[in-house]
Design a protein that fits this description.
Blueprint lengths: L4 H34 L7 H12 L3 H25 L6 H39 L2 H7 L4 H40 L3 H11 L2 H27 L4 H34 L3
């Protein structure tokens, strides 16, 4: 008995998606291995790394500034009624700081960074690929992979932890302002509560995993742009899929890293 046309189309669509999934995973693995091989081979292109850190990181400060401040405000505004209901409002500054440091600031900053940077890298390298600029670099005896990809991956890996620390600071300030408006919170009391609650066991895993997130953003954006084809449509597709894939991998890795960090530095 022949399958109905609709079921047959769904079957083919599923097979195609499954095939594309394994192709992407295999491609990223090979791409990652090539980066790890070339990252220690001179020349190191320090000037290019600095340039990309400025373009990809410093220009992200405005959006993460607003985001970080709003995170602190919203967390306190949402949590305060619950803490007051259970008579635990004294613990609100410390609990807010721990939740921001441990999880909210690193993950939200990484997702915003992926949305802005991964798509930008994918579009930029995709444009260079479809206009044959990368091929021209290869003909000119320049290593385009090291010059274009490795430098961007190093830059994203190094800049995201700095952005995360900045967001943590702004989020804690935002939480203080929310508590000042609602309860007239004293700054000295708030500062002591935060410093007492947050330990190195909270800060170290939080900052450490942002190096992984930054690496993911760089490698996914570079991979999607580097293999782009199909003209301007392919560039758009590379930019879009880079954001989606980078965000998904960040969330998956965060689940694993949270479990590992809790085993090493329990709450």
């Amino acid at each position: 008995m022949e399958l109905p046309k609709e079921i047959f189309k769904k079957y083919l669509s599923f097979n195609e998606k499954l095939y594309n999934f394994f192709v992407t995973i295999t491609g990223l693995t090979i791409f990652n291995w090539e980066i790890l091989k070339q990252i220690f081979i001179p020349p190191y292109e320090i000037s290019e790394v600095k340039k990309h850190m400025n373009e990809l990181g410093v220009k992200t400060f405005p959006i993460v500034s607003v985001t970080g401040f709003v995170i602190g405000l919203v967390i306190v505004m949402q949590s305060e009624p619950v803490f007051v209901r259970f008579g635990a409002s004294d613990y609100l500054p410390g609990a807010t700081a721990i939740s921001i440091v441990r999880e909210l600031a690193p993950v939200i900053t990484a997702l915003i960074f992926a949305g802005r940077v991964s798509s930008g890298i994918g579009a930029e390298l995709g444009s260079m690929r479809v206009t044959e600029q990368i091929d021209a670099m290869e003909v000119s005896a320049i290593n385009p992979f090291k010059y274009l990809v490795v430098t961007r991956v190093i830059a994203t890996t190094m800049i995201l932890p700095i952005l995360t620390i900045y967001v943590i600071f702004l989020s804690i300030i935002g939480g203080f302002i929310a508590l000042t408006i609602s309860q007239g919170m004293n700054f000295e009391y708030y500062k002591n509560a935060v410093v007492t609650s947050v330990t190195f066991g909270d800060l170290i895993p939080s900052i450490s995993k942002t190096f992984v997130f930054g690496y993911i953003v760089g490698i996914v954006g570079s991979y999607k742009g580097y293999i782009a084809d199909g003209g301007t449509e392919g560039v758009g597709r590379a930019s879009t899929t880079a954001v989606v894939l980078a965000s998904l991998i960040i969330l998956l890795f965060d689940t694993v890293l949270v479990k590992i960090s809790l085993m090493i530095w329990p709450l």
